[in-house]
Design a protein that fits this description.
The chain has three helices and five strands; from the N terminus they run αααβββββ. The protein is of the alpha+beta class and 153 residues long. It has one domain. A hairpin with a 5-residue loop joins β4 and β5. About 27% of the residues have low confidence.
Length: 153
């Protein structure tokens, strides 16, 4: 019960923070885009934003879907977390999903990494992907690889 309360408090803290978090996927953005820091919680007008870092989940994810998915991923992969799945949804778009950490965190090239399974229910079809994300000390999670899930069921 304490862990559930801690997860709830963490989610509430993320929602109350009011800042967006960016998790770029390697190889999908130019160097100039990597140098831009996002610090505002105000979303650009529809059609004027660049593709989000988790667009590999689905091209149907809009900026708000991206923001919710990124927050869920950060909580799910947190090395101090309990290893449980973390869900997200956006009632306005109808999209939802979850991140499930797979195994414990591990070190790779001075970064904390964790494997995950991502599930997304889009308007057109459900998706299930597997990947690995890493975070430098004090930095943001970066998705290192993501591909269709190779497991069963």
């Amino acid at each position: 019960m304490r862990r559930l309360a801690a997860v709830g408090a963490s989610c509430l803290a993320l929602l109350a923070a009011g800042c967006s978090v960016s998790f770029p996927i390697l190889g999908l953005s130019s160097k100039a885009e990597d140098d831009v820091a996002t610090t505002s919680s105000v979303l650009p007008a529809r059609g004027t934003s660049k593709p989000g870092p988790l667009t590999a989940l689905s091209s149907e994810l809009g900026p708000e879907d991206q923001r919710r998915a990124e927050g869920a991923m950060a909580v799910a992969l947190d090395p101090q977390g309990n290893g449980a799945a973390v869900s997200w949804d956006n009632p306005q778009s109808g999209l939802k999903g979850s991140f499930i950490p797979v195994g414990g965190p591990f070190l790779r090239s001075d970064e904390i990494c964790r494997a995950f399974i991502a599930q997304v229910q889009t308007q057109s079809k459900p998706l299930k992907l597997q990947g690995t994300a890493c975070r430098p000390s004090g930095g943001d999670w970066l998705v290192k690889d993501m591909e269709p899930w190779k497991g069963t069921t």
